[in-house]
Amino acid sequence: MSLHKARIKAFEEVLSKDEIDMDHLRRLAFNGIPEEKGLRPLVWKILLNYIPPEKNAWESTYDKNRQLYKEFIEEMIVSPGGPTDHPLSISPGSSWSKYFKDNEVLLQIDKDVRRLCPEMSFFQSATEFPCAEVVNSNGVKRLHKRVEQSVLNYSTFEQRGLGLAKLNNAKRRTESFSSGDYVPLTEGAEAHWEVVERMLFLYAKFNPGQGYVQGMNEIIGPIYHTFAVNPNIEERRYAEPDCFFCFTNLMAEIRDLFIRSLDETESGINNMMSRLSECLKRNDPVVWEQLKKQELRPQYYSFRWLTLLLCQEFKLPDVERIWDSLFADPKRIDFLINICCAMIILVRNDILIGDFASNIKLLQHFPPMDVSRIINEAMKINSA
């Protein structure tokens, strides 16, 4: 039996138990989850606390959450209740005010999801399972159509008037969502990026204190892709609700990185970057000193690494492999810092001979590399 087949068998054995041995599963997943037999989506659902270790609770958990998500769509998208007050009402609680505010959020989401993973065609292609409640509604409930139709209306109804500059601005924003940005699919079809748009809009609606922050589209993308390409057709059918709840659980762990008012707190992004600097200082003081001399601060390159869990630094298959290890580690934020430190150490030779300009370019555009090297180096740091 080949090593790869043996790994698949090991996963199947641990997943066949009535109660999953989480320590065993984490050890296996840390070294990479095979893509065959729907193992990665299933293991991610367990590691992200979507389904429990007890297998007898899986069916009821799935049924409850999938039905709940269907109700979310009905309540927030299909039948949200039309505005009943005057569109020029200045009351913050007016239905029109909320509607326009939602559209401002949706505008940013729509812009971001259209350019998700541009190097691959997956997100532009049609999903096998379009949301019937949405695609059969003559287009009026499709979120990207709502953006196109509402941008001009938003400026028209704004309390400050109908100045020419405002109308020109609305025109430019409307043009940015022209047909050139969206290749229509056949009637009744729905692109994967539209599914992602819907999930992010719902997340923003249910998390008003945080809302949508640019970059969340990059976090949800790999999760949705993993679930949507599951070889099990019945599991693919529910990729959207399953992804939504896994994404919500993951965001509960890293949400502080997206809230600016928490930047200086222990769980904020500035502390994370400081921890990365200290990690590098302990593990490679020579490189740390070089970056310090050049005043090349972690803020210049690691902000994106940390907030987006490295998903913009590598191709999607490599991101998914890194996330296998990241999700498997009970202290995943600590391990994320170790991975980032390992990345710097692995390009140390270039850093030591480079100047500020070449080094910032190197770290902001990290070179292609076998991610297993990075994970192995991060494990050394973890055990140091």
Automatic annotation (TrEMBL):
Query: Where in the numbering of this chain does the Rab-GAP TBC domain appear?
Result: 34-330
Q: From what superkingdom does this record's organism come?
A: Eukaryota
Q: Which GO terms describe its molecular function?
A: GTPase activator activity
What keywords were assigned to this record? GTPase activation
What Pfam families does UniProt report for this protein, alphabetically?
RabGAP-TBC
- Enumerate the InterPro entries for this protein: Rab-GAP-TBC_dom, Rab-GAP_TBC_sf
Protein's name according to its UniProt entry:
Rab-GAP TBC domain-containing protein
